[in-house]
Amino acid sequence: MAGPWTGWGCVGSVRRVRVGARQTVSVAALIALAAAVLAGGAAAVAGVAALSSILVGLAVLLLAGLQVIVVLNLRRTSRQLNQVARAIEAATRTGSEGLLSDPSRQSAEQLRADVAPTNAGSEGLLSDPSRQWAEQLRADVATTTWNGRLPVPPQTIRFMQDTDASFVTTARTLVAVLARNGLHDTSDVLDVGCGYGRLAVGLLDRQEFTGTYLGFDILRRHIAWCSAVVTNVDPRFVFALLDVRNERYNPEGTLDPATTPFPAASASIEVCALFSVFTHLYRSTVEHYLSEIARALRPGGVAVTTWLLFDDERLAAVASDDSEYPLRLQGTDGTRFMLAEDPLRAIGYPTQDVVTMARKAGLEVVEVELGYWVEGHTADANGREFQDMVTLRRT
Ligand SMILES: C[S@@+](CC[C@H](N)C(=O)[O-])C[C@H]1O[C@@H](n2cnc3c(N)ncnc32)[C@H](O)[C@@H]1O
Q1: 260 lines ligand 1 (CB under 6 A)
Q2: Residue nearest atom 23 in ligand 1 by C-alpha distance
Q3: Is residue 217 within 6 Å of ligand 1 at its C-beta?
Q4: What digits encode the pLDDT tens for the residues 72-103?
Q5: Could you give the CA distance from residue 222 to residue 377 in angstroms, rounded to a whole number?
Q6: Is residue 256 scored above 50 in pLDDT?
């Protein structure tokens, strides 16, 4: 009878041996089965061996293929890098070399002729001022931060010789001065002659400040830095360039300082700041700027302005050697200044003239605080600001 192995497909039996009570198996079948098992095992071993060799072969082929791809890619990358390096080298060479002699360009002569009409001299494209300007801006905005938090301008555009730390200290001081004179955390601020953004960075530092800030100046490079860096950090801070003429700061300016309007809407500003700006303006500009301040301020809005003031009583100290700006020279319009060759380096006004001009412009004089500049910058500040401060209010 079929045993448990029948299902295994054994070969037919020759002699039956009784095994146990009911199971019999054929010896021949057992031998055949054993032989079959052995043969199967051998075949399996041989199969596995063959399969393994095939797999190993395939792996070797795969690795070789990968190596070829890597080598080809490295060659291509190195070729591309060489091309880029050659292009950079060509583009950064100056004079008659460089871009103009790059072999990938059609004809150096043709190109030279093409760029000549729009670029000065034989230097062509490479001396294009807008290209140099772009390079300069790129360098300026590759700026550092103070304590990893606040942007600070590059040393090359700071005209007050501030270090990073003193830049931030002054920035905070300017905000504190405004806060003592009417700045609120929601104020709309106008910063006339904003320079390289000291007040802006001070306000940026003041987390509670949720108002708006508009700064303008006549220096393209400074406004470019402020816009590219400060506005980028916080878009509530906006900067504008006004190409107004100033003998000292922007002698090539195209706009008349005594008539050009501020880039601010009428009655849009609550606090207007002019830190160390009236100290560099001729009288006709001062008068115009006071009327522009009055126009831009909302009724009740304030302007915090700094000056170099004098009257009869103070005249000797103002003109003395101790003074930080010895205003020894007298202008025909009642002003005093320090340098004949550069009157706008430091120009002073009679206190009474400032009061009169402000009133005429529609501004009330809230306070005049004399600073310690007449004693030199090393004097004991004793709670005073350095320049004289005049706080004005729009009536
Ligand atoms: C001594 S800096 C003071 C900068 C800035 N207020 C500060 O405290 O950091 C004088 C600034 O007045 C700017 N300025 C000169 N004439 C100007 C004018 N007519 N309108 C606006 N800004 C002017 C200069 O370009 C310069 O940035």
Answers
A1: no
A2: 193
A3: yes
A4: 444 544 454 344 334 333 333 332 222 223 33
A5: 25
A6: yes
Q: Angle between the 198-205 and 164-180 helix axes, to the nearest 10 degrees?
A: 80
* Ligand 1, pocket-test mutation among 166, 218, 254, most atoms within 8 A of CB: 218
- Rounded to 5, what percent of the chain is helix, strand, coil? 45, 20, 35
Taking only the tens place, the pLDDT of each residue in 326-352 is 999 999 999 999 999 999 999 999 999
Determine whether the shortest distance from the Cβ of 219 to ligand 1 is under 6 A: yes
| CB proximity list for 139: less than 8 A, separation 6 or greater | 154
Pocket test for ligand 1, best of 159, 277, 342 (most atoms within 8 A of CB): 277
HEC string for 201-224: HHHHHCCCCCCEEEEEECCHHHHH
| Structural domains present in the chain | 98-127 (no CATH), 135-394 (3.40.50.150)
Nearest CA to ligand 1 atom 13: 193
With CA atoms as reference, report the closest residue to 143 among 129, 130, 158, 133.
158
Q: Please give the Cα distance from 60 to 63 (Å, whole number).
A: 5
Task: Tell whether the model's pLDDT for residue 45 goes beyond 60.
Answer: no
Question: pLDDT > 90: what percent of the chain?
Answer: 60
User: Going by DSSP bridges, is the β-strand pair 269-274/309-310 parallel, antiparallel, or unpaired?
Assistant: unpaired
| Ligand 1 and 198: CB distance under 6 A | yes
Question: What is the Å distance from ligand 1's center to 219 Cα?
Answer: 8
Residue with tokens 């306070």: 367
